Every structure is written in structure tokens, then in C-alpha cells.
Automatic annotation (TrEMBL):
One of the record's GO cellular component terms: cytoplasm
Domain DJ-1/PfpI as annotated: residue spans: 4-81
Domain of life of the native organism: Bacteria
Designated name of the protein: DJ-1/PfpI domain-containing protein
Gene3D superfamilies: 3.40.50.880
PANTHER family, alphabetized: PARKINSON DISEASE PROTEIN 7 HOMOLOG, PROTEIN/NUCLEIC ACID DEGLYCASE DJ-1-RELATED
Length: 116
């Protein structure tokens, strides 16, 4: 982990500059090592109890957890994670969100209506 110290420093800088810091699956480990989970909720797909860098009391088992500019997600929640990132940047729209959440494909629905 000695080699990763510059990475942890960059993560802290991004957080301090209020840039988005996001991680999915076991990726939150790097955020924990950077000290970002002190006093905030997070999620991860990792045995967080085996790593002293994770504040166990702040872990929540949810698909996606967002606190300010920090977004974490369970590994299986890649679609909600992507939507959370798009929402953070203000580029998520209802059509795309519905499509990626499996709530409808307007292109296919239009083709079906036109050809039936």
C-alpha cells in the first residue's frame, strides 16, 4: 500500500476541491484508505470488517450511497451507480433513466406501434 499513497492524496484533493469522488464494488477501499468515510455513510462490496480503514458504524447496505461529492455503490448496482453519477453532473434525464432501469424502451415501443 506504500505505493498507493499518491493515489490516496489525489483522492483527498479531489474531495477537498469538491470534485466528484465515486467508487463501486471494492473500489471504496481506496476512498476509505484516503480517510473519506469519517462521519459519513458509504457502501461497498467488500468484507469491510477486515479492513481497519473502514468505519464499520458508517457502512449501510444499500445499492448506492451519496454524500455530497462522494458516491459509493455495491458491485451489482452498476446501473444505479451510473445514473447517480449522471444525476450528479445534471445530465440524467427521465427517458434514459427509465430505459436503463428497464422501465421502457421508447424506440422499440414506437417501432412496435408503427408496425402492428
Amino acid at each position: 500500500m506504500e505505493d498507493a499513497k499518491p493515489l490516496f492524496s489525489i483522492i483527498r484533493q479531489f474531495h477537498e476541491q469538491e470534485k466528484l469522488v465515486a467508487a463501486i464494488c471494492a473500489g471504496p477501499y481506496a476512498l476509505a484508505k484516503a480517510g473519506l468515510f469519517k462521519g459519513i455513510s458509504y457502501t461497498a462490496t467488500i468484507d469491510y470488517q477486515k479492513f481497519d480503514c473502514f468505519p464499520v458504524e458508517n457502512f449501510v447496505y444499500e445499492e448506492v450511497v451519496q454524500h455530497s461529492n462522494i458516491i459509493t455503490a455495491q458491485g451489482h448496482a452498476f446501473v444505479p451507480f451510473g445514473i447517480a453519477i449522471a444525476s450528479y453532473f445534471g445530465v440524467a434525464d427521465e427517458h434514459n433513466t427509465d430505459f436503463y432501469c428497464g422501465k421502457g424502451n421508447v424506440v422499440m415501443e414506437k417501432l412496435l406501434r408503427e408496425n402492428v
